[in-house]
């Protein structure tokens, strides 16, 4: 089907060709080697006329030129808008999903290059702090959706700690990436409430309230003017705020249950189901806090989001992974969870690398079927069913809940290292990115991006030798092959001039120079897409030189 502009152009050319043919001068009929032409005229009754061969040829040439011009306009418009004629088939590819007898082949049309570029750039954004003095120079964000609806979210907020008109040298800047699962209710809620909750907790710390400290200890701190704003207390505040917010999410439906015994209306059930949605679904979170006054950065991670820092100093670049994936196959997490439950649950707490055989991350917001008692879960699910919603199943070995916590692990770094290094950037991303590139590869790609956004495709081995990015030891879980090790040197990286660093990372995670693979990964949709790529959300935070 022709696009509107092409249809209009073609119709105009057709009208022009008709008027041109009618306006040709009509010579006196003469016999020309027996060639006779007939045509109709709106200026009178049908008559038979004879025209010269030269006139016929001229009219034909004019018509051909005009039709060719119309075809050119139509082709340009359709190519520009990504529309092709029905007689031309797009490239198709087939993927196989499922296992055993459930295996099936699904065919997709490959997106055009223009459509892929539009998809890569659709959600990208770059921002700079509105206040001078903040050590954050800029941050780039982007995401590519896989799930329908999209379950990831991100957030960025600057909290001033100085008076209006002063510089931002005391600002607190928050960045978070949030990876939802079993729906987007939890990630949506956290994108709006997490940073305010963290800011409130830190305001209490600034006034002398240290989380977990006894009341007489708090009084002592106030009377002695003890310095409560310290790295260890900031870490405690972040941990306490994560847990407090999750407690409100999980306890909300339980507190609302008694009201359901009084009000059995459909409206009350629908409100209850909406309240329970963030508790029933779940989300993992990675948060970075930049403390401008003290030139410090804190990273708090619950689940398998990841933060990776890039340092530059006299000896070149260094990759510093600031978090450890909290998963059911992480030996540290397995040992921690088994230590928190009776020995008879040793085989059920973690099964097949998952919490009770179900949830892959061992820490998360929401996921309250792993936190409620069986009686509480059944009562909540009964109301959700009455509201017409499908609840998550209660876990089978629910003996001593909770089995999942939102308590994060917190890491602290100064923006300037003791050996002359400076923190240049932090890559904060959901596991959709880390499923396809490693922490060290993200550092390598971002460091090389700062050197030049556009260059010819470069082999992975060559770029690893060129940039020579070192890594901090010991490396946290999961420990993956390093760039230049020989095992990850196949293929090439691309530098296609992206103005947004998050887009640059996503582009390379989706196949690098293998543009055919990139096209196929971006062309997948529906439930099939999730078999091959996850929602991918990336924030890159750049610091002043």
Automatic annotation (TrEMBL):
One of the Pfam families matching this protein, by short name: PP2C
Quote the SUPFAM superfamilies the UniProt record gives. Answer: PP2C-like
Q: Could you tell me the superkingdom of the organism this chain comes from?
A: Eukaryota
UniProt keyword terms in alphabetical order: Membrane, Transmembrane, Transmembrane helix
* PPM-type phosphatase domain sequence ranges: 152-543
Q: Is Iron-sulfur one of the keywords UniProt gives this record?
A: no
* GO terms for MF: [pyruvate dehydrogenase (acetyl-transferring)]-phosphatase activity
Q: Locate the transmembrane regions by residue number.
A: 59-76
CDD domains membership = PP2Cc (cd00143)
User: Record's Gene Ontology CC terms?
Assistant: mitochondrion
Give the matching PANTHER family. Answer: GM14286P (PTHR13832:SF792), PROTEIN PHOSPHATASE 2C (PTHR13832)
Question: What name does UniProt use for this protein?
Answer: PPM-type phosphatase domain-containing protein
What's the source species for this entry? Cutaneotrichosporon spelunceum
